[in-house]
Every structure is written in C-alpha cells, then in structure tokens.
Amino acid sequence: MAKFYTADIPVSPRIEKLRDALFQKMPEIEADRAVILTESYKETEGLPMISRRAKAFRALMEKLPVTIRDNELIVGSSAKKARGCQMFPEFSCEWVEDELETVSTRSADPFYLADDTKATLKEVFKYWKGKTTSDLATSYMKPETLDAIKHNIFTPGNYFYNGVGHVTVNYGEVLEIGFGGIIKKAKAELEKVDLRDANASQKRIFLEAIIETFEAGITYAKRYSELASSMAQKCTDPQRREELLTIAKNCARVPENGAESFYEACQSFWFVQLLIQTESNGHSISPGRFDVYMYPYFKKDLDKGIITRESAQELVDCVWVKLNDLNKCRDAASAEGFAGYSMFQNLVVGGQDKNGEDTTNDMSFMCINASMNTKLPQPSLSMRVWNKTPHELLIKAARLTRTGCGLPAYYNDEVIIPALISRGLTLEDARQYNIIGCVEPQKSGKTDGWHDAAFFNMCRPLELVFSNGVDEGKQISVKTGEVENMKTFDDFYGAYKEQMNYMISLMADADNAIDLAHMQRCPLPFLSGMIEDCIGKGKSVQEGGAVYNFTGPQGFGISNVADGLYAIKQLVFDEGKFTLSELKAALENNFGKDMANNEEVKNITVGLVKALAEKGVNVSKEQIADIYQNVVAKSGGIISDGGGRYQEILKMIEEVPKFGNDIAEVDAFARDVAYTYTKPVEQYKNPRGGIFHAGLYPVSANVPLGAQTGATPDGRYAKTPVADGVSPAAGRDVNGPTASANSVAKLDHFIASNGTLFNMKFHPSALEGTSGLESFVALLRGYFDQKGMHVQFNVVSRETLRDAQLHPENYKNLIVRVAGYSALFTTLSKSLQDDIIERTEQKGI
Amino acid sequence: MNDYLNTKGRIFDVQKFSVHDGPGVRTIIFLKGCFLRCRWCCNPESQRHEIETMTMNGKEKIVGRDVTVAEVMEIIEQDRIYYRRSGGGVTLSGGECLAQPDFAAAILRACHDRGINTAIESTGFASFDKIEKLLENLDLYLMDIKHTDSQKHKEYTTQPNELILENARKIAKSGVGLIIRVPVIPGFNCSKEEIASIANFAKSLETVRELHLLPYHRLGEPKYEGLGREYAMKGVGSIPAEHMDLLKKTVEDTGLKCQIGG
C-alpha cells in the first residue's frame, strides 16, 4: 500500500573502506594535466581557439594517468591520489606561482605540493604569461573597476581565476544516447551547414570540435576498460577479479553507448561528471535531478531482478564517494570564500515534472539514504519542496538534517518556479529546475547561468557614504556629499543608493570583462555538446550557445545594512540622540573598542597609577578614568574612544529593534534595503545575450570579506563577519525560529531569482523524537508558505562545535553547513568555525 | 460586541515554537500570578501577581506587563501558519491562568473565534465556576496532579489537593481533552508507589488516556537569586533516567499512555 520504499538501506562495508581511503592523506596537487595541456597548446598555436581546446582535451583523454582505486565499483579519477587535484593554468597561474610556497601551510584548504611537482609547474607556467583568461579579463576592465576590486567593494575572483562551471548538463540525454549519440547529432548538424550562412565556417569548426572531444572521451573510458582487464588478470581475489571484469565491460560500453543497466548508468554518469571537471576547473558542476534521470534504470533492473535495493544503494553510495574524490585548488583568498575543499556538486531530489506532477520516487529516498550512509559533504544534497511533496520524503530528509550534517538544503518550488518564469523560462522548463552550486536555480541542460558571478558586500557602499566615496585615502567612488550636511534620512538613504548603483555598475563591468575573456580564450566544446542549443546554434556555451543565459552576482550583508539604516533613521533623524558626524567618528574608531583593549594605553595608565601609589597618592576610580583619557588624548594618532561617547552610541544602537524578530516595521525596512541591490542589478546585460539577476547569499565570503569591512552602524565591530545571505545578523534574532523565519520571509525572494540563503541553527534537542521531526517539518512548511525561497540547517550544539575546535582529532567526521554547502568542520579556518558557532541557536521549548 | 478583546491581564513571557506543551507548534502565553507556591517551581517570577524586578546575568529585568487580549492576539496571529502546518495552537501557562479567569477566558474565546486550537496548563486550583468559563473555548486541559496525599501536597505547594482532585473529576466529565501531568520531584513524589497512586487516580477519570511525567530540573534556580529569594530545593539532584523509565512503566501498567517530558 505504501507508495515509496522509505526504510533505511544500511551501508555496506565497502563504502566504509572507500570513505576511509579518501581521508588518509592531505590532498595533493598533481601536474599531469597542466603539462599535457601546455604541450598541446604549444602545438596548436594559430588554430581557432575552439579547435585548440578540443585538441588539448583529446591530448588529456589520451595521456592523463588512469587509476582504479581499491574497492571501487565506479571508476574514473582525475588524480592519482585520492582527493588530489590537477591544475588549470589556462585560466590563471599568477596566483599559483605566488602561492607555491604557502599552499601546503595556509589556513583554508591546504594542499600538499611535492618539490618535483612544484618545479614542473613553475616550468609550465612560463608558457602562460599573458595568455590566460584572467590576463585578458583584466585588460577589458575599466581602471575604476580594478580599483573597486582592489578596495574589496566586490570580488569577481571566482571566474577571474578559474573556469566558470556552475552548470548542469543534460545527464538524462547522455545516459540514454551515449557519447556516440552526441557525435551523431553533431554530425547530422554538420551535414546541414549551409555555406550561404555567414557563420558557416565558425559553425563547422565548432561541430568538429564537439565530435573530437566526445570521441576523445570514449577513448578515455576505453583506457579504463583496458586497465580494469589487466588488473583483473593479475588479481588473486576471485571476488575483486569479477568486479574488475564487470568494470572493464562497463567502461567498454559506456559512455560510448546508451546505458542498458543501472550500473552502466551510474558509471556513465560518473564519466560525464569527471570529464566536465577535466575540461575546465569551474566548480558547481551540479548533477541536478539524479532521482529523476536515474530512476528508470533502477526500476527496470529491480523489476528484472538484476539488482536488489541493497546492491543499487551500494552503487549510489559509490557515486557519492566519487563526488568527494574530485578536488580543486583555489587561490588563498578564494579558498577562504569557498572553504572546506568544496566542489559544490549540487544534487537535488523531489519536485515536479514538466506537467506539474510530483516526481518523488524510490531513488529520491535512496539519494537521502546515500548521504546518511556516506556521511560526506558531497554531493551538496538539495530537496525541492512544494505543496504536494510527500510527507514521508520530508520526514526522511528531516532525519538526515537531524544527523547534523547540514544536508539537505530545502528549496521552495512555489517561489522558484514563478521567479524563473519572470526571467523568461517557459513554464515547463521552470517546473523542471534544479539547483546549481550553493542555492542557484536553473533549468538543466539549457542554461549558462554564470551564477556566483561576484560577491558584493553591501556594507562597503555604506562606508563609502560616510567617507564621501573615499577609501584608504583614494577617491574610488562617486561623491555623495559630506554626511554632516545631510538633513534628512532620505538624503542619507539616497546617498547610499547612489553609492550602490555606482559600484553595481562597476561590478557588471568586471563580470562582462571576464565573460568576454572566457568566450575568447576558453570556450568548452565538451561541455557545449551537452547543453541545448549549442549544437543547433553552432556556438559554444561561452559564446551564448545555451538557450538561457544569465549572470548572477550575489549580494550579502542585507541585515547589517538594514539594521544600520534603521538605527540611523531612528536615533539620528527621528530622535536626535546623536549626529551623523558623531556616528562617523564612532565608526572610524570602531566604537572605541580598540581603545578599550589597547594594551599600550592600559600599560601606560597602570604604570602612572602605580607610580602615584608609590608616592603615597590614593587614586580614585574617577581619577584613573581621567588619567586613561589623558593617555588616550596624548597618544595622538591611535584610535580614540571619544571619551566613552562611542560606547554610548553603540549601546543606543543595540537597543534599537533588529531584523529577524518579526517586527513589521524593521522587516519592511530590510525588504526595501534588499531592493537597493536586487533592482539595479536587473538593468545589466551580458555578452552572451542574457540578463543579470541578483542572488542574496554569501557562500562563506561573509567571513573573509567581513574582515575587510570597517565598523557598521548596526553596531557591528570592524573586521567581524558580515551577516550571511538573508539571515538575520548572528545573535540578533532572539524571538525564536518562527520569528526569525517570518522576518526573512518578508523579504522579496522572487526578485532574487539567482537564489537566497537562510541559515538556521538548531540544537539537536529541537529535532528529538517523532514530534521533533514533525515540528521541524511544520516550521519548514510555514516558512515556505510565506514565500521563503531556501533554508538550511545546522543541527549541532555549540558545545560540540567548541569541543571540536579544541579536539579536532575526535571530530574528523563532523560535517556542518557552511553556506550553500556542507564541509568537514575541522577543515575550516578558525575564523569560519567561529562564525558558525556564533550563529543564533534555536531550540524547541 | 468585541469588548472582550479589551479585557486586560498581566503576562510575564511569551514563548513561540513551543513543541512540548500540547500538540504541534504552539505559542505559550505565560500569565502572572499563582495560588500555589511549589518548592520546585522553575518560574518563581510567575508566582506573584505584582510586577517585579529580577536580576539575570547582571541585568535588571522587569517581570510582568499588562496587555489587552487584542494585543495578545496580535502576537498569537504571527505564528498562525505554523499552527496550521503542525496541528498546533495556543497554550496558556503561568503562573496559573485561573488566577486571571476573565482574561484567560477572553483569550481562549478570541482564539476559538479565529479557529485556533487552545490548551491550558493549569493546577485546577479554583472554584469550578471559574474553570467552566475556560472550558467553553478549550480543546485541551494539561492538568497538574502533583500528589494524592493532601497533607504532603500542602506541605510542598502550600495548598491541599481536595479541590484539585474534585475539579479533575468534573473536567473529565465535561468532555474537554484532559491530560494529566506530574512534575516528578525528588523527595516529594518520585517513589513508584506515589506515582502509581497518581496514575490510578488518573485512570479512574474515564476520559483520561494519557499521563506525562515531567522530571525535576534546576533551570529555575538562578531566578530565585535574581529575585532575592531562597531556593528551597538547593542541592537536590536530578532523577536518573533509569528511574524515570521505571516510573513510566508503572504508569503504563495502569493502561494509560505515558511519556517522559511534555
């Protein structure tokens, strides 16, 4: 009678072994890809770029080392060592050169780098001077744009230094027709190329490049088949020998042909996933609706009796492990922003088909089961929720949430579908959306979403209002007037909007410069073969070949700005408690905090008091304060505490109501503040023929970028983290989870169609027992009823996290939700760990 | 016609997303003032009707504020969506809501007028006509029965229990949902026999099917200090989980459903 198989399917011993093998060593940088690619590039100079890319890809497929690890059932590894990574010098290499010496010791995501690899890479990089996408992008940018980046108003670093990624290909089609089918499609299109068409030659070259890359991909799989055969011959364990022979058979058949069994479909899926990430190092290559496209293979084999639920689960678990075997080395600054070695391979379960019917099936449950079994941060498991989502799927997901791994993240169809339609998707496409990377929705196989296009720190333009556009002595932005002369709140708010508008325009300039550079220097023929309508248009994804093209830069820090502006309105303009000049001084001096903690001043004061005491003078408390002030005054140049006034101002600010407590007036304010980012962004267009649309999420950049942000008028101290996504600022939502969720839902999530991110943290006690799960689901439903777009949960006690900081050796498996993804807690930098600990913890009472 | 919405009363706290005091997700309204002075009370600031000052974490906090039913309803309405999604609603707690019967009755009426499920958490220590006023718009009565021995009851709570037990019988007859809750207090009622006696009484009330055992905790201790009062239970430890399990089994032996915690 039950519609779904909801019971837990236990983990096999093989998975435990595979999992342990992943984490035996620090991940290592390998040089093979960089060397092979560079050799190929040297041989193809003068050819069209798309052909050079195809030939380089073929060289990689023919020469990259092939490795089958112990116990694997699904094979294909980008590096010889588990969790090792290859390098991608065509996108950028200056940072690698600069950081070769520190990459193994840095705080965020260190990689081991052997001396000979280092020497090889140094040699290889010589070729790339001036030839990378990063170099070209820089030359396209306005000087003002480069300045704004340098001053950390926003950072487009992700695609500036790396491939773009952030895509979901048409996995369903590839599994069905195989690489052979794609080659056939390209050949058929090639036949149709009409020389009367002005773009005929460009089209022909592009289609030939597609054919070359898919043929190369088949070659690569065959090398695995041969390796498995030869390993089988030498293998003495009869069971493993059988397994290797099956692997050999699978890799001989797929991905060249359409998959005929569930096992073949898993193997074929993995080759697609791996090869996209061999062609480019763009991350967030998201498997998308795995439950939808894998289910038919599973069902067929299960009905035929070829597989059992247990053997199928083991295969799914093996795919999960492989998703954690891939790795990427980012520059140190980006590593802070994407901390936790994350690849953001987002895989989503649940949702609707093109006709609006629920798609939940047994594979949806098996995906959640796989995350329970493997206890690994990848894939970034997501779940689509809509009015007709089966309750039992939500309960199964809630049980995964309860384990504390931060998975899955929950997404609201009732917001995302209309939001995507408003950006030009058809109803059918919008209904079939999946999630990319952190939180970004799009239609698989048809979209180049350029999600994650830049981090925009909404607090920095607020600082620029106070400084009249000057940062560190340089006029980097427009002059909006001295704050002393602003007579009304609207004057001040108007100035903020002007600063925002200007900086957003520079961000768009940066994004489009980088976009052009990728188009011209790194078109990706392999990827393009699996994105509609590249073959039809005869254009790569990077040249606008996809059906839907977007650029989605993300803003963060809304709640700091909203709380700050609200405090200014109330305390400066409505009540006249202090002036903007006073506030400016308080902010410049970090509310006097540095002063209060300034050791030097303290020591001088203590010294003076002691000296007086020795002379027999009794010093009263008031006198000590006077002496202290004197020292401060005479210290010249060091920060002042304004005679205690700055702390007074801070106290007043702290008393003002804050976003996150279900207070209508404050929340309405926050909604308006979010528009200062989301609305201007909509005006820009990208070189691929698409539009910009905003996201409101920070990945983990709110911590490192917060460290570059001065004190803000919401009472946030300088250099501390900025609020993440649309979440209330840490510790300020004090009225419980429903109030917090109600506030966040009052923002306009529809306009932030590139995704919003709401972090909630629960104490494990809140999800205890059946009633805990039910209440949790009710909270989620309630938030979504009010049109919240996304929410994710950390379910781990503060005490546990503190203990894990002190004793990381005991918490190697502790996964936490960082931003739009989960990561192993102990791999995160101390500052990011602190940020997660500080998030407001909600309890069921 | 809506005059009852202007009824004023005194509350000292509101707790949203409560999942342990009645079904589903609930908003708890804590009314100030109580007839009993239970030694273990974890909300000593709830006992007096007067507005008072409590020092917590070095900060002075005013405990108690006067609000109209309309104001309370505004707070309650904020989480309506979660009640609907979870089968939850509103629970009046305290203090003792029977100490402000008109105010409590008006809140319950306003909830029912708006289709919101209602519960009260109450000792039942009041004349039955006051209770009747509440029953009119009540879905669930979470009733404390602390002891079957009146003498001991009086010793630990300052009041005898006859009225409470009599009211329990009447409430059971009224047809309103009734769950018996027992705070399990070391040295007072935590023996197997004492709990069995309460369970047997509960079982004798024909409409009662469920009994909750609420183990003693000390979370209220700092509040006594904050109010400048003596904590009568100083040094008393919590009840071991195994013993709670034993008591649970004792209750279940009578045929009642039993859970530990709300």
Can you describe what's shown?
The complex is a heterodimer of chains A (845) and B (262). Chain A is an alpha/beta fold. Chain A is built from 34 helices and 17 strands. In chain A, helix 13 packs across helix 16. The model of chain B has no long low-confidence stretch (mean pLDDT 95). With 262 residues, chain B is of the alpha/beta class. Classes of the chains: A alpha/beta (845), B alpha/beta (262).
Summed up:
The complex is a heterodimer of chains A (845) and B (262). Chain A is α/β, with parallel strands linked by helices and 845 residues long.
Could you describe the largest sheet of chain B, including whether it forms a barrel? Answer: 9 strands, mixed
Mean pLDDT of chain A, to the nearest integer, reads 92
**Large-scale geometry of chain B:** globular
The number of distinct β-strands of chain B equals 11
**Whole-number total of structural domains of chain B:** 1
Q: State Rg of chain A.
A: 28 Å
CATH homolog superfamily of chain B: Aldolase class I
